[in-house]
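Standup notes
- DV: blocked on the single-chain target, sequence here:
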Amino acid sequence: MTDTGIDNPSALSDFDFMELVAFDSKVDREGFCYAYENYPPRFESPELQEVAVDFTSMRSFYGDHDDLVDQWWETVGGRGCDLHNAHIAEVQRRKDDLCLWGVLYEDGHRVLQRTEEQRENWLEYMRRNNPGRPAAALLHRSEPGGEWTESPLAGAP
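- DV (later): unblocked, structure below
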């Protein structure tokens, strides 16, 4: 992985380290158990993915790396919030890239879904609950992160 300028003090990839930073911020606010149940880290490393799905392993891993996260905050200072926010944006971009279906609204907003069924359920929900929100087109792509194809949308909200 290339250096992203985050001053990563660990042997973890920059993405995985920032995922640990994000998890640590939830632990600080909510406690470990609540954070683990509601905001578990989504590591990219297969080895760390195995750690993250086991409560005891994750608790041990977190304890072993908590000082590195604290050290990182001291090193990066005020840049920490911007780096954390950039990581959260990257996580969202990766989630969006996995979506193959979507709806484009007249205001340019896109609602993305992983399956065609989820997209159709969204459209039905909007028809019932927000009929004044005009949709402009249906979106589809054949591969994650690929180019969107727009199809006209007749009679949708």
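- Follow-up: Residues 16 and 43 are 5 Å apart (CA to CA).
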